[in-house]
Amino acid sequence: MKKLFIFSLVGLSSMANAAVQWDTPQGQLKLYGDIEFNVDAASSKQQLSSLRATSDKKNKPADKDRWDINGRILIGLDGYREINDTNFAGFVVQPLADLGGDMNLDDAAFYFGQKQDWSIKVGRYEAYDMFPLGQDTFIEYSGNTANDLYEDGFGYIYMMKEGRGRSKNGGSIQFNKPFLDSFNFEINALVNNGEKMFNNSSYHGYDIEKKKNVVYVRPVLSWKNDNFSSAIAAETNVVKNAYGYYDSDGKFRDQSQRTGYGATFSWNSEGDWDATNKGLKINTSFAYMNAKDENNMTIGTDIIWEKVGLGYYYANNNIKKYNSDPDKKEKHGHINGKGKYKIHTVNTSYLIDNVMDMENFNIYLGAYWSLLDRNKAYGDNTADRYGARVRFKYFY
After folding, report:
1. Could you tell me whether strands 27-42 and 382-395 are parallel, antiparallel, or unpaired per DSSP bridges?
2. Which of 5, 104, 134, 159 has the lowest CB atom count within 10 Å?
3. Distance of alpha carbon 188 from the chain centroid
4. What angle do CA 3, 8, 9 make, to 5 degrees?
C-alpha cells in the first residue's frame, strides 16, 4: 500500500517497476528509464488536427513526409523521504533525449504532505487526466500539453489539457486532498505565457500579442473503486486581457477568455487498474470549451480487451470569427474561415508483450483513420488521413 501511495503522488507509470532503488540517510532514490521509438507510415504527414501526430515534441502539421522514425529516451530519478509514517516529501526529474537531437523534459516536480491526508506539488508535471485514451499507440496527444496545442488552419480536439500542465513557459502548483475513502479533490494552478499555446502566435488569422501571463485554475473531483472510476472538472483562465490582437481600428481584443468543462468515466472488469493486458477496460470522456469567438466539443470512447484496443473520437469546432485578410500569408491548413468543422477519428492498437521473454519489452502495433468534415455553407471541404505505426517500448 505504501508503494502505491508514493507512485500516485508523482504520477509514475509502470516504468517504476524496473527501477533501481537506493536507501540513503535522507530517504530513497530511484533510477529508471523508458525507451519509446516509433516507425510510422502515413497517407500524408500533414495532419488534420492541431494536436501532435508524432512523439518528437515538435508540432509540424504542414510536414508532408509519409515516412518517419521518431521517439525518445527518458531517464528518471525520484527521491522520497518519510517521517514517522506520516509526513513525506519527494521530487521527480525526467530528462528526455529525442531522435531529433534535442534535449527535453517530462516531469520536474517537488511534493510534500501528510499520508492519506493532503499533499502539495509544485513544478512541471501533468495534473489529472480528464481524457484517457487507453492504448493510444498512434495518435500521440501527450507531450508539452500546455504549449503549441492550437495550430491555425487545423481542427482542435479539445481534451481538457490547456490547464493540465507541463508547460515550457511556466510552472504549476497543486493541492490534493483525499476524503471519504474513495473520493479525491485536486486543484491545479498553471501560470505561463498563454500566447505560446498558439503555435506561431496565430489564432483565427490574427497575430496574437501577449500582455500578461495567464493563470489557469483547474479543479478536479474524482471517485474510484475496484471496477469504476469517474471525474468531473473545469479549467479557466482567471486573468483578463492576458493576450489578444489589435483589430483594424487599433482596438485591443481580448482572446484569453477560455473556460472548459469535462467529465470522464472508466470501467475495469478485473479490478486491477495497473494490469496492461487483462480483462476489459472502457473509457468514455466528454470535454467542452467556451472561448472567445469559438466553441469546441469533444466526445471519445476507447475499449481495450486483453491486448486489443479500439477508439473513436468526435470533435466539433464552431469558429464564429476569422480574419481572412488577403495580405496575410497563405494558410497551409484546412480551415481558413469561420464555420463549423467536425473531426472523426478511429484508431486501433495491438500489444505484443514480453518480447524475447523480457517482461519490460513490448511492441505496439497501431493504426488510425481521421476525417475532417467542413460545413457545406463554407465549401463542403472534406479531407482524410490514415496511417500505421510500430512502437518499441522498453523499460529499464
Report:
1. antiparallel
2. 5
3. 15
4. 105
Q: What is the dihedral of CA 222, 93, 5, 269, to 10 degrees?
A: 60
C-alpha cell at 8: 500516485
Q: Which residues of 53-71 are buried (b: 16+ CB within 10 A; e: fewer)?
A: bbbbbbbbbebeeeebebb
Q: Which of 42-51, 110-119, 280-289, 359-368 has the lowest mean pLDDT?
A: 42-51
User: CA–CA separation, 111 vs 5, rounded Å?
Assistant: 13
Of 129, 143, 130, 153, which is closest to residue 53 (Cα–Cα)? 143
Please state, in angstroms and rounded to a whole number, the distance separating the CA atoms of residues 233 and 218. 7
Per the structure block, which three cell numbers stand in for 336? Answer: 481558413
Residue 163, classed as helix, strand or coil, is coil
- The span from the CA of 264 to the CA of 344, in Å, is 19
> Is the pLDDT higher at 36 or at 58?
36
What kind of fold does domain 36-75+118-395 have according to CATH? Porin (2.40.160)
Residue type, 39: V
DSSP 100: T
Alpha helices per DSSP H over 167-238:
none
Residue 49 · residue 370 · CB < 8 Å: yes
- Please name the helix (run of DSSP H) or strand (run of DSSP E) that holds residue 26, with its range, or none: none
Cα 79 from Cα 93, distance rounded (Å) = 9
C-alpha to C-alpha distances, 92 to 64, 114, 225, 384, nearest whole angstrom: 37, 18, 27, 40
Instruction: Select, from the ranges 132-136, 137-141, 242-246, the one with the highest average predicted confidence (pLDDT).
Output: 242-246
By DSSP bridging, strand 294-305 and strand 206-207 are: unpaired
Model's pTM, two decimal places? Answer: 0.87
User: Among all chains, which residue has been given the C-alpha cell 518519510?
Assistant: 82
Of 261-275, 328-342, 380-394, which gets the smallest average pLDDT?
A: 328-342
- Cβ proximity of 235 and 162 under 8 Å: yes
Local confidence band at 5 (pLDDT 50, 70, 90 cut-offs): very low
In angstroms, rounded to a whole number, what is the distance separating the alpha carbons of residues 243 and 383? 32
Give the ranges where the chain is alpha helix by DSSP (H). Answer: 2-10
Q: How far apart, in Å, do the first and last CA atoms of the chain sit?
A: 23
